[in-house]
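Appendix B, record 7
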Amino acid sequence: MRIKITCMVLILTALIIGTSHATIYLGVENKSYSPERTFDDDIFLAGNTIRFQSQINGDLIGGCQELVFSGICQGNINWASRKLTINGPVNGSIRGFAQHIDINAPVGRNLMAFGQTITIGPATYIHRDATLFGEEIVFQGTVGNYARFGGDKVTIAGKFGGDLKIEAKEIEIEPVTVIEGDLIYESPYRVKIEESVIIKGETRWIEIDQETEKEAYDAFAPVKFMLMMFLSLNCLISIIVFLIAMIPGNAVMIPLMFLTLIVSGIILVSLNRKLALKTVTVIKDRFLVALGLGILLILLFPFVSLLAILTVIGIPIGIIIIFAFGIFCFAGVVYSALFVGTYVGRLLNISKQPPSILCLIIGIIILGCLILIPVIGWIIAVLILAVGLGALVLSIDRAKVQINAEGKPERISANPEKN
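Structure tokens (predicted):
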């Protein structure tokens, strides 16, 4: 039986794996990584207190009690911890989930941070977009494009190359602030803006009634809309499955389940064909990285959601995380099926412009049949879910911008003396 299981796993891996980068998995309690050390691979890291001063020519992914990063990262940083401190340049994006977040370094792409307190220092230059949600936010850096902040108290003393949207109970805009686009803020009070503040676009205040502030304040409105759509679709599918299950013998249950998954998958791919194509490309080029990240997200999900729910202020965030995770899992499975169908389509000389609906149908049928295999079906399902989930997160932003320690775009050499 063990030989059979091993063979099936190897066959599935051979089917959906393409070329991939090497990956390093590290587990430590308390560890420091010196500046002289260089990692040429993606790193999955877990531990208690970690101080990272080395250079990474890939992604840094993991979780711990406290991370202090002061090295150089050529890829992305995806991290969850109690305290997150980043003082070294990151060429890719930063996605941080922590109670306390402190960032004072250039970011080549996007910054996405969720925490109780978020502090962005003056050395931070975000080349693209910034999305911050927390109880208290202090921003002193620079954003190249669009920025959105949400929380109880938001303090702004930076520069913004595009529009700035703030949703908070208390907002402070320091005199040194420069906004190249529009300023749109939702708050119970009108913000006092000094004459030295530069706002080249429109300034718009959306007043929130103090008596109905809790009901009116909705920083996650777009996310909630997506979740409601997902819940509605999920309830509809659940009712259909229940009715089918009442049929004696369940003779038509499996075909209708396939049909439901195919229809839902077609809708998902049609809504964002570009994202679907990016995700398929990530699965092909970085299979092991996507698989490792997906497994990590699956393992971290219950702890992160439970931690959020245990705090009063984090209950809405915890609920959103739970349902958003379901959306990402479903999308990951669909994109995994799309990749398998595309791979098989090429073997069968089916020339369709990706992402192809025909290839999606083929992939769903193949993966569905594999999942129905007794004993090992759940193993295959976990692999499909993990690789699709990880690839979806990695594919959200794949544009590369090289930066140096001063925040200027350029290629970072492996030799620190050349930077």
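Remarks on this record: The radius of gyration is 23 Å. The chain is about 40% helix and 30% strand.
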